[in-house]
UniProtKB/TrEMBL annotation:
Keyword Transferase attached: yes
Species: Rhodococcus rhodnii LMG 5362
Source taxon at top rank: Bacteria
Keywords: Aminotransferase, Pyridoxal phosphate, Transferase
Gene3D superfamilies xrefs: Aspartate Aminotransferase, domain 1 (3.90.1150.10), Type I PLP-dependent aspartate aminotransferase-like (Major domain) (3.40.640.10)
Pfam family, one: Aminotran_3
The name this protein goes by in its record: Aminotransferase class III
CDD domains: OAT_like
Family as reported in the entry's similarity comment: Belongs to the class-III pyridoxal-phosphate-dependent aminotransferase family.
PANTHER family registered for this protein in UniProt: ALANINE--GLYOXYLATE AMINOTRANSFERASE 2-LIKE, PTHR45688
Keyword Transferase: yes
Length: 446
């Protein structure tokens, strides 16, 4: 486990960068440090001061336009008019909690469930993905009577005490629960095996056996089906089936963390887990469901959720409030009306093809992989040895930032560019990305 947090400390502004800033930017960073403290992080050695967004684009305080290649929270696109209108209309009418009757939460739930397997028939709502995963873990522990949870070695599942204890991507300063087990992610680029599904299932099985030897009862597997923080590892569709079978045979539950893979992003399916032909026991989702409005959810099989809800009343003051539900409904409607799942598949394929073409000209690009509009581009110093090049990746980010392209890195080595734009990203934007990458790599490796 890395001492640094791969999702927080890589691609971040640090105090030693301050001298290179213009006076206005430096003053803002100092004000932020004084007001907000040291736990927060800023992207880039020269932070970006954003003031406006529209679709896949962002503008800074000087009026410069950027292409957002990272922000899945504004999943449809920044300030999408359908969401703005729905939120404005509902906020001007009523916003309160879920202990009063209201149709919006029920109408949305009925619609949301049509996108999921029939076995998943109950929903609960919160405000953040962390809360959704926190509740999912509590449910898993209730239904199984265990507390042993398996996650991948560079996973990130949230910031609550429970979810951070199964989020090794936060770095070694964050203790991992003694009942948790970390397994290697199924990395098709680095794992030499003819059957990635069997390979990953064996790691899960070994972790369950290790729990039993330690006297820990197994509760479940919590997994992001794109292994986003592990380096964006979509792998071949279907390879998670064997691991899910192992979990169920051992009496555990499968929790699909869909905060990043869900809501049409992969193009191949509406949900990331659906690419693999599995039916999880619990599915969690986060702010992309509301295009950035604080809303999250948990959907589960009735028999799984009842083990918790029959004993524990649950109340989240603004989880599922009418304004958030209006935003979520607008997102679901827009995904359908604008054909965004099909769009994600088509434009994602174009982007992969263009980036793989770039790899023929740059030896530093070791691998390009993705599903829909979620792509990982891995940088290496030696293609034969697959040697990760974190330093190059971080320098590339800075060069991209100077060329108006915003993104960040992922993976245990911090060497994978995580390209995850809002679904508004279009074919016409691909040239901006590839040209900026081509120029950045040429400058840095020539």
């Amino acid at each position: 486990m890395s001492a640094r947090s791969t999702i927080m400390d890589d691609n971040s502004f640090r105090a030693e960068h301050a001298d290179a800033l213009d006076p206005a930017t430096r003053a803002l960073t100092e004000r932020r440090e004084k007001s907000l403290g040291g736990s927060y992080r800023l992207f880039y050695r020269r932070p970006v001061h954003l003031v406006r967004g529209e679709g896949q684009y962002l503008w800074d305080a000087s009026g410069r336009r950027y292409l957002d290649m990272y922000n899945n929270v504004a999943s449809l696109g920044h300030c999408h008019p359908a969401v703005v209108e729905a939120v404005t209309r509902q906020a001007s009418t009523l916003n309160t909690h879920t202990r009063y009757l209201h149709e919006t939460i029920l109408d949305y739930t009925d619609d949301l469930l049509t996108t999921l397997p029939a076995e998943l028939d109950r929903a609960m709502y919160m405000c953040t993905g962390s809360e959704a995963n926190d509740l999912a873990l509590r449910v898993a522990k209730f239904v199984t009577g265990g507390d042993g949870v398996i996650v991948t070695r560079e996973a990130y599942h949230g910031t609550s005490e429970l979810t951070s204890s199964v989020s090794p991507a936060l770095g070694s300063g964050q203790p991992i629960a003694p009942t948790a087990r970390l397994v290697d992610a199924p990395d098709a680029y680095r794992v030499d095996t003819p059957d990635l599904g069997a390979w990953f299932a064996q790691r899960v099985s070994d972790a369950i056996d290790d729990m039993e030897r330690a006297g820990t009862r197994f509760a479940g597997l919590l997994v992001d089906s794109l292994f986003s923080s592990d380096g964006v590892l979509p792998g071949p569709a279907g390879y998670l089936r064997e691991a899910a079978d192992v979990v169920h045979r051992a009496g555990g539950v499968v929790i699909a963390d869909e905060v990043q893979p869900g809501f049409a992003r992969t193009g191949e399916a509406f949900w990331g887990f659906a690419r693999h032909g599995i039916v999880p026991d619990v599915v969690t989702m986060g702010k992309p469901m509301g295009n950035g409005i604080p809303v999250s959810g948990l959907v589960a099989r009735t028999e799984v959720l009842d083990a918790f809800s029959d004993r524990i009343p649950y109340f989240n003051t603004f989880g599922g409030n009418p304004v958030s539900m209006a935003a979520a409904r607008a997102v679901l409607d827009t995904i359908r009306s604008e054909g965004l799942q099909e769009h994600s598949a088509a434009i994602g394929a174009e982007l992969l093809t263009a980036l793989r073409g770039l790899a023929t000209r740059h030896e530093a690009i070791g691998d390009v992989r993705g599903a829909g509009l979620f792509v990982g581009l891995e940088l290496v110093s030696d293609r034969t040895a697959l040697t990760p090049d974190r330093a190059l990746a971080l320098d590339v980010l800075e060069e991209l930032r100077e060329r108006g392209v915003l993104t960040s890195v992922a993976g245990p080595h911090g060497n994978v560019l995580k390209l995850r734009p809002p679904l508004a990203f279009a074919s016409a934007d691909i040239a901006w990305v590839t040209t900026a990458l081509d120029e950045a790599l040429t400058v840095l490796t020539s």
